[in-house]
Every structure is written in structure tokens, then in C-alpha cells.
Amino acid sequence: MEREAEFITEPQKKIPVVAEADICVIGGSCTGVFAAVRAARLGASVIVIEREGCLGGTATSGLVNCWHTLNDTSGEKQIIAGLTEEILSRVEPAETRGKNHADSHFFNPHELKTELDMLCAENGVRVMLHTLYCSCMEENGSVRYIIIENKDGRGAVRASFFIDASGDGDICRDLGIEKFYNQTIQPPSACFLLEGDVSHVDVTRLIRHHGDEFGLEKDWGWFCRVPDASNITMRADTHVLGLIPDKAEDLTKAEIEGRRKMRAVIRMLNRYGAEGVRYANVSSCSSIGIRETAHYVTAKKADQFELLLGKRYDDCVMNGTYNVDVHLPDGSITFHHFDGSFNTELADGGRVTGSWRRELGIDESLPIPTYYSLPFSCLVPVRHDNLIAVGRMINADIFSFGALRVMVNLNQLGEAAGVAAYLSISSGVSVRSLDGRSVAKKLSEGGSANLA
Ligand SMILES: Cc1cc2nc3c(=O)[nH]c(=O)nc-3n(C[C@H](O)[C@H](O)[C@H](O)COP(=O)(O)OP(=O)(O)OC[C@H]3O[C@@H](n4cnc5c(N)ncnc54)[C@H](O)[C@@H]3O)c2cc1C
Q1: Which end of the chain is more exposed for a tag (fewer CB within 10 A), N or C?
Q2: Treating both helix axes as pointing N-terminal to C-terminal, what angle do 248-272 and 203-210 enclose, rounded to 10 degrees?
Q3: Above 60 in pLDDT, residue 356?
Q4: Rounded to two decimals, what is the model's pTM?
Q5: 96 in the same domain as 44
Q6: 3-class secondary structure, 384
Q7: Has residue 214 got a pLDDT over 90?
Q8: pLDDT in tens, 31-63
Q9: Domain extent at residue 126
């Protein structure tokens, strides 16, 4: 029988204001760090609050070490620059494939951690690690304080502007901002670094044939090289299905099931992998990689048609090329491409192809763009004056989210959030009244590519 919720009243207590800045960023993935650094370079004082012991989010704690191309699909025009390009030039070694290859840049996630530490230090950004955002205090449409907890206990942080880069949108949740879950929530994956030569082993195929023996369902997985680490690959072979990982209980189950699956893959490889090779997991993700949870409503919702038909905007703050890539709840994956085609790779090894343009009744003779863009209005809050939520909680439909969610895109949106926060406080104007074109202009001046 389900028990009725029981409530207690927390005794009132004084909380010290432990930090103060112009801008407080919650969440220290590249989205959050790039927001912080862009604002700091314009002269703002900035604090980043991060619950893990390192910066980088999914790229470091989740071990996802692949960023996509900075060029359009022709490979001739650079459409992404800014801090994405800067950090790639600093992380050594970062391996780069051809100029227009989708999976363009690979790096060692452990290197990225240190580089982000250094980037923050050089730009005077204060970082608080092992510090959890717990709640916030709002007054007349503005966030005044957030409450944090760390080894010093409970404290408050005061700022003029807050950027929610927590992935799940924890501040948005607490402010009661309208949210929605897409019909299909892309499932999480626990990634790990595998030692042992798999160059002649098709792990996805092995899972299809022998997975049952190890408690692994049929799945569609992928992997990535780790530069300079010979014999080591980053593995994302499995998904954890059927959970919503911004629910505390589901998140716990996802971590435990993800760990079980990583071990099952190793055991399977040691039985059926290359002969004479011993396989080992030499580094598990410290947090399971979460692809999708809630999305929060903003002034404009990103739309798959505008995206894949390459609509241009005056207030453009992001360019990208990564195709729509939706991991489905049954372990299959579907890709929609600019040229109008789609392919769905089924978990059982089957494949379905076709034309999404035709199926959706879109004129197939419309020109095929070489990149897409996103307007600032997708980041503008509906009700709040000093808050931007940026990251995978973006207001986007299933398919546009499938494209926007990759890091080269979210990195740019982080930069846009940092610039907008600076412009809002320096001009004393609510973020809702900012002219998006001025945000785009400032972004370009700070090194972002071809935004106007
Ligand atoms: C398995 C997997 C493979 C992927 N593959 C690719 C790929 O190859 N290339 C690509 O570009 N993208 C890939 N993606 C997508 C991409 O990695 C994510 O969409 C992106 O990293 C999300 O970034 P984010 O900043 O929104 O969130 P996150 O990376 O989740 O960062 C959120 C940050 O906020 C912190 N945080 C959260 N809550 C709190 C709190 N209450 N207090 C303090 N800190 C908090 C977290 O610790 C974290 O550091 C993949 C995703 C997954 C899961």
C-alpha cells in the first residue's frame, strides 16, 4: 500500500552569505564554464557552483570525449569558434578528423578537467567544487539568493544574475517554471574506458549474440578513441532503459544498472572478444551520462523544421551541423539528415531508411542548408528578469533536441548566456528586454564565428 507523504517543518535558522558575485552559474560543465568565462572577460565577477569534484560535466564526469565539427557540411566555412575552438587548441592532444567529419574532435577527458580549471583561474572565475545547489529565493520575478551546501555546511550566494547550467534545470524546477518531457526521453548511458584491443571486435554485434548470457538486452552502442592512450577506447555500448533520471529513485537505479552493464560488457568481452586479449575497465564514469530529462519553457521553442531547413535569425547565437540523433527508449537510434533522409538503426541490427521530408510533407525541392542556427529567444525566460537556463533542459521538440544537445552547440549557448547576463546587468535591463541582436554582436566580438 502506498504511504501518504509525511511532512516535517524545518526549524528556521540563519544562513551565512558565503559568496557574492555579479553572476552565479550553477553547474560547471563546459556550458556553465563557458558562460562564466565569457562574462568574466567582459568584466563581470563570476562564481561557478559545481556538485562534482571537477568541471566539465558529461565531457569529464561522464567521459564523453567527442566534439563535432566546427565547420559547415561543406567543410569550407567555419561556423563555430569561441571557447570551443580555444579549448580544443589547449587540450593536448586533441585528435581531429577531416574538416567536415561529424565526429571531428576527440580528447582525453582527464586532460579537459585540468584545462577547465586553468581557464577559470586565468579569467578570475571563482569555482566552488563539491558544492550542491539546494534551493533559491525569489523576489518580484528576480532570483536574489541561492542556497548551497558543501563541507562548510549550508550557505547563501548572492548575485545580480543567475545562470542555471545544471542540465536538469534545478533552479527552474524550484521556481516552478513550466516544464515538459518529450514523448521519448533519450535514455542515459554509463561510459567507461576499456583497456584491450577491440579493433577487430564488433561489440554491438557481440551484445546481440551473447548479451542474454550476461543480462544485456539488444542495444545500439558506439565508442570513441582516446588520443595518446594506446589500446584504450571510450565505450558507450549500452543504454539504461525505462527510467527518468531527474527523479531521485530512477537516477539511483540508473547508476547501479549502468555499473552492472559496464561489468557485463567486460565479462562478455573476456569470454567472446579477441582471442588472447584480457579486457579491463580502467575508468568508469563518475556520473552516468544523462542525455535528456525535463525541458523548460522559454520565449521560443526550438523547432526541427526551422533547424533542418536552415532558417536564419537576426538574433542568432549558435550555429551547428550535427544531425538529428535520437536514442529511442528501446535502444534503437534514429538520425535525420539535412538532405531530407533518415536512417533508424534498430537495436536488433535491422535498419529502416527513408525521407523525413517526404514523410512529413515538406517540399523536397527546398534547398539543403549546410548548417543550422538558433535564435537568442530560445534562451529568454518567460517570467524572470535575471535568470537564464542553458544546456540540455533547452526548450526544444524531440527532433531539434536530438541535434541541439551535442556539446559544440551547448557550448555556444553557454557563451551566449554569459554575454547576455553581462549585458543585462551592465545595462540594468531585464534579460527579457535585451535585444538579441546585441547579444549576437557581442558574441562575435568575443570570438564566436559568423553569428550575425
Ligand atoms: C552517453 C552520452 C554520449 C553522448 N555523446 C555525445 C557526443 O559524442 N558528442 C557530443 O557533443 N555530445 C554528446 N552527448 C550529449 C552531451 O554530452 C550532453 O547533451 C551535454 O554534455 C549536456 O550538457 P549540459 O551542460 O546541459 O549538462 P551536463 O553535462 O549534465 O552538466 C551539468 C553540470 O551541472 C552539475 N550540476 C547538476 N546539478 C547540480 C546541482 N544541484 N548543484 C551543483 N551542480 C550541479 C553537474 O554535476 C554537471 O557538471 C552525449 C551524452 C551522453 C549522455
Answers
A1: N
A2: 90
A3: yes
A4: 0.97
A5: yes
A6: coil
A7: yes
A8: 999 999 999 999 999 999 999 999 999 999 999
A9: 17-183+372-445
